[in-house]
Design a protein that fits this description.
Strand content: 25-35%
Number of domains: 3
Order of helices and strands: EHEEEEEHEHHEHEEEEHEEEEHEEHH
Number of helices: 9
Distance between the termini: 11 Å
Largest sheet: 5 strands, antiparallel
Shape: globular
Number of strands: 18
Structural class: alpha+beta
Radius of gyration: 22 Å
Length: 312
């Protein structure tokens, strides 16, 4: 049996399932519905039942942008809801850790929740990647010295892109921002930690999707548009970036697989930059990254690769 934990609206999952239907038994578990769980731990055995079906060691589990939901459909006071969410989170993390060690598990909810940009930069550096010179600081003095050294610097969110509602205002992130000296002059001597990086001049940006030991990569010509030149995610709908298949050097693929092994992840998306000198820079990893965009533009049929693995 194949168990797929996903979102109701995830079209990427739909495409994989189109290969599975009629060929193999599977259960799709969407995170917007209540999942029945039984997790029995005794001195003699450990038994897990999902929706009354007992997991067998030959079963495969694919975690795709979701986790189990144990909330029945009824209204709960916000304070109680907050408490139950923490309990649910603990169960999901414990389940994933056990499944990872004892079953064929692909993907990770836990790694998505605990995806730390600063830690990943250190690990990527240790794997031999070049990384943008980076600084996280609470000191105006530190950032002024950083700016003086590199001149062209950027800032971005450390973890999440915020959408904050306060009174009659909504604050949202613009993603990656170019930092000007006038912005720094407005800072107080001390402030909440801010993440800064040296801006890396680009030849192209590269999106890489990894599934097990397969590496799929795509070149993004983001420099063709002022809108996307700093970050391709500032999409230019009038003048979309050119997207083409890209063959990474074997040495870079080996570094990527080494990085994935060190962070204990078997699938995800990595963003790289190729600078005008031909050097590759690691930016970040998204453990639950989308692959539709890459697959369609490069004719990689990644959904078929995933389906074949699940059916094997």
């Amino acid at each position: 049996m194949i168990y797929i934990i996903t979102e109701n609206s995830d079209s990427s999952t739909d495409k994989v399932l189109s290969y599975l239907i009629g060929n193999i038994d599977f259960v799709r578990i969407n995170n917007d519905r209540f999942t029945k769980i039984s997790y029995k731990i005794s001195n003699n055995e450990i038994i897990i039942k999902i929706d009354k079906k007992k997991l067998n060691l030959t079963d495969k589990i694919w975690i795709r942008r979701a986790r189990f939901s144990f909330f029945p459909n009824f209204n709960i006071d916000s304070v109680i809801n907050n408490y139950l969410s923490k309990e649910e989170n603990s169960i999901n993390k414990s389940l994933e850790l056990f499944l990872k060690d004892n079953y064929d598990l692909t993907g990770s909810y836990l790694k998505e929740v605990e995806n730390y940009k600063l830690t990943n930069l250190v690990i990527a550096r240790n794997c031999g990647f070049k990384i943008p010179n980076s600084l996280i600081t609470t000191s105006k003095k530190d950032i002024l010295l950083f700016y003086k050294k590199y001149k062209n610097i950027i800032t971005k969110d450390i973890r999440y892109s915020p959408t904050l509602k306060y009174k009659d205002y909504i604050y949202t992130s613009n993603g990656t921002l170019k930092v000007q000296k006038k912005d720094l002059n407005k800072l107080k001597k001390s402030f909440f930690p801010i993440f800064f990086q040296q801006e890396i001049k680009k030849q192209i940006e590269i999106r890489v999707f990894i599934f097990k030991k397969k590496v799929f990569s795509m070149a993004i010509f983001s420099q063709s548009s002022k809108t996307t030149s700093l970050d391709y995610r500032n999409y230019d709908k009038k003048n979309p970036n050119r997207l083409v298949p890209f063959n990474l050097p074997k040495q870079m693929k080996n570094k990527i697989l080494k990085f994935m092994k060190l962070i204990d992840l078997n699938t995800g998306s990595i963003d790289l930059i190729l600078d005008p000198k031909g050097d590759y820079y690691f930016l970040e990893i998204n453990p639950q990254g989308q692959y539709d965009w890459l697959s369609e533009n490069c004719n990689y049929y990644i959904e078929q690769t995933i389906a074949k693995y699940l059916m094997k």
